[in-house]
Amino acid sequence: MIHCLCNNLRTSCVRRAIEAGARRPQDVHRHHGHRVNCGRCLASIAEEISEAALKAPAAPSLATPEAVMPLAAK
Ligand code: FES
């Protein structure tokens, strides 16, 4: 699928940019050395980013048991 007609960005291009750290549609364009032109692709690229985020393994939680449950008085 072609997401961006102005810059000929296909799904594989978008996914490569996401794997390289793109978290916004503008990041995807920047990754490939392009600029947003008409902007019609932004929603579909954002959707691709959201889908990738849902498939990604969850980040380790910063919450420790002590942070979740107050320490018992000693
Ligand atoms: S379709 Fe992507 S900038 Fe126009």
Summarize, please.
The protein has 74 residues and is mainly α.
Would you kindly provide a written description of the structure presented here, covering whatever features stand out?
The protein is mainly alpha-helical and about 70 residues long. The protein has one domain. A two-stranded antiparallel ribbon has the order 1-2. A hairpin with a 4-residue loop joins strand 1 and strand 2. The longest helix has 14 residues. The radius of gyration is 18 Å and the shape is elongated. The mean pLDDT is about 90. The site of FE2/S2 (inorganic) cluster (FES) has 10 residues, from loops.
Looking across the biggest beta sheet, what order are the strands in? 1-2
How many H/I helical runs? 4
Largest sheet: 2 strands, antiparallel
Query: Can you give the helix content as a percent range?
Result: 40-55%
Structural key phrases:
74 residues, mainly alpha, two-stranded antiparallel sheet, 4 helices, 2 strands, binds FE2/S2 (inorganic) cluster
Describe how the helices and strands are arranged:
Elements: E1 2-4, E2 9-10, H1 11-19, H2 25-31, H3 42-55, H4 65-68
Antiparallel strand pairs: 1-2
Helix pairs in contact: 1-2, 1-3
The structure holds FE2/S2 (inorganic) cluster.
